[in-house]
Write a structure and sequence with these properties.
Layout (H helix, E strand, L loop, with lengths): L22 H8 L3 E6 L4 E5 L4 H10 L5 E9 L3 E10 L2 E13 L4 E3 L8 H11 L3 E3 L48 E6 L11 E7 L2 E8 L7 H6 L20 H15 L6 H31 L2 H23 L8 E2 L2 E2 L7 H27 L2 H7 L7 H6 L4 H5 L7 H4 L20 H28 L22 E8 L2 E8 L8 E5 L1 H7 L1 H5 L4 H10 L4 H5 L1
Parallel strand pairs: 2-5, 6-7
Antiparallel strand pairs: 1-2, 3-4, 4-5, 8-9, 9-10, 11-12, 13-14, 14-15
Helix pairs in contact: 5-6, 6-7, 6-13, 6-16, 7-8, 8-13
Length: 557
């Protein structure tokens, strides 16, 4: 899926690396396909015709280097439907561009972007499912979150919420049949009631003998209308509790930060430096909490290692949860961040709190050595994970993969460094990558990232310990009621535990968003599972699912 172009062959449309792209040069490159231009807070938006999607996106990918379709947002206005393709560059995500595709209300049809960005397949299915936009030449345009028999599109303006929804038994007949496409192929259902899918993911698996010929993930089992709930909540206080619920593996503070970053940029709120340090420290503790769960459960899924590695992971998570409970008052659903800062200052006595963190950090290197001795050095685990579930860098980019999944394939992409926020650009740490692109590499990346998170936390503790008492400002002066200007649009993302977690918001001048879109990293990772599993054995498929560290609340939303 690579464009095959070198950096030297890409036209100079980026301007300086620290600035926005040269939009005039991009517009000239696209020519008459651009019929209008919009200003979004994060990037300019080029408006194009619905029959120019493939041509426009191909040019932007092949000739301008926009190789990352990070998100696709669909929405309905009073006079039109609209699809927005949020484009970035893996080499520099600060280089952003929005491609806006309006369609008529009476015929909401547009070209599919799948021939250019395979990751758009699921995004467009979601847009069709929830909003009602149809995409021509889409390879598989069917519902993705709701049952096929669902009536209407829940995010459309004329949706009837009182209409009864009935799913007949025939819709599930395929789960019970033995589908055979030929003498050597067989269809099996994996999940949702399977230990590795946790009751919330179903895979349609086509087998050729004992090898996987194709995988079709069936998601939406815990779809909870999170976007619609956020659209009904006020910016200031009512939305922030929801992000914790998108990823209940411990990454809640990072999820809260995703919303905070988008809303603060939308409302021009500048967070005090002291609060940024606290956010950075809390966010990395949350990352460790998530990675420890991933490592512990992976040991259980792949080699059945319950007695040592799994319980060690739970033990170390408990230590982090104790720290976060002292900080936030909660052990999982933290709800600690506020627009403009954090809810309250560090717990008293501060010295005791810092001592608890340092004690955890001091013990961590020895514990990580034990993880490697018990897990990564385990011959059985190596046989199950090395050279299985392979994902090349090109395929990872094509499917919009980010986080440990992409970095394990050699994709050097981390928003903490590449699109700095918080206090990350003031600290000394490294982005972890591996080149193997297999299940084992994804495990190694998470273990090594725990080490880097510990470095960041230690530096934050040093800063907070010496911070002048008179300058400990935990929140900016935020108005009681936020009403961003109408038709203001923004997409902002953070490096969550599983990758790029992005939020699109469009305001309408009221205290609630007109459109709220959640871009979960695991949504793209589960989509890429079909590429990773093809040709593997069935046990390898289980190992590959576990290596993605998927929390389905983030996928289904």
């Amino acid at each position: 899926m690579s464009s095959g172009k070198t950096a030297d062959s890409v036209p100079d449309v980026s301007g300086d690396s620290s600035t926005e792209p040269a939009y005039d040069a991009l517009a000239a490159l696209l020519g008459d396909t651009v019929i209008d231009r919009e200003t979004h807070r994060n990037a300019e938006g080029f408006v194009i015709r619905p029959d120019d999607v493939v041509e426009t996106l191909s040019t932007l990918r092949e000739e301008a280097g926009f190789d990352h379709c990070s998100c696709v947002t669909a929405q309905e206005y009073a006079d039109r439907f609209e699809t927005i393709y949020h484009l970035r560059r893996y080499a520099d995500p600060t280089q952003e561009l929005s491609v806006v595709v309006p369609t008529a209300r009476e015929s909401p049809t547009s070209e599919s972007a799948v021939p250019v960005y395979p990751t758009a397949a699921w995004h467009e299915r979601e847009a069709y499912d929830l909003v009602g936009i149809e995409y021509e030449d889409h390879p598989d345009l069917r519902r993705i979150l709701l049952p096929e028999t669902w009536q209407g599109h829940p995010l459309s303006r004329d949706y009837n919420q009182d209409q009864p929804q009935i799913v007949s038994f025939r819709e599930h007949e395929r789960l019970l049949e033995d589908h055979r496409a030929g003498p050597e192929t067989m269809h099996i259902n994996m999940g949702p009631h399977h230990p590795s899918t946790h009751g919330v993911l179903h895979l349609n698996v086509q087998l050729d003998g004992e090898q996987v010929a194709a995988v079709d993930p069936d998601i939406g089992y815990i779809h909870r209308c999170e976007e619609q709930m956020c659209q009904q909540g006020a910016y200031r206080h009512q939305i922030m509790p929801y992000p914790d619920r998108w990823d209940w593996g411990g990454a809640g503070l990072l999820n809260e930060w995703a919303y905070a970053r988008a809303a603060e940029a939308l409302a021009d709120i500048e967070v005090p430096a002291y609060a940024q340090v606290i956010r950075t420290m809390g966010g990395e503790l949350s990352r460790i909490l998530s990675h420890m769960l991933a490592v512990a459960t992976y040991a259980l899924d792949v080699v059945g290692e319950f007695t040592a590695t799994f319980q060690w992971g739970v033990r170390d998570r408990e230590l982090v949860q104790d720290i976060l409970e002292d900080l936030t008052g909660q052990r999982l659903m933290f709800n600690y961040l506020r627009l403009g800062g954090v809810a309250w200052d560090l717990p008293e006595p501060r010295d005791a709190f810092f001592e608890k963190i340092r004690a955890f950090l001091d013990d961590l290197p020895h514990k990580l050595t034990e993880y490697h001795d018990m897990l990564t050095s385990n011959e059985i685990l190596q046989l199950r994970t090395i050279d299985t579930g392979h994902l090349s860098a090109e395929t990872a980019k094509a499917y919009g993969c980010t986080g440990p999944v992409a970095r394990a394939s050699g994709v050097d992409y981390d928003l903490r460094r590449d699109d700095p926020y918080g206090y990350y650009d003031e600290l000394d740490w490294s982005v972890v990558t591996e080149q193997g692109g297999d299940n084992f590499s994804r495990l190694l990346v998470r273990l090594r990232e725990v080490e880097e998170s510990a470095k960041i936390i230690g530096q934050c503790v040093d800063l907070l310990e010496d911070w002048p008492e008179d300058d400990r400002e935990i929140q900016a002066n935020v108005p009681r009621t936020l009403r961003p200007d109408p038709d203001t649009e923004i997409y902002r993302a953070v490096e969550a535990a599983k990758g790029e977690l992005g939020i699109y918001i469009r305001s309408d001048g009221t205290e609630t968003p007109a459109r709220f879109k959640i871009r979960g990293p695991s949504f793209s990772h589960v989509q890429a599972l079909s590429e990773m599993a093809r040709g593997e054995y069935v046990p390898d498929l289980v190992a590959t699912i576990g290596s993605l560290d998927t929390i389905m609340g983030e996928v289904d939303r």
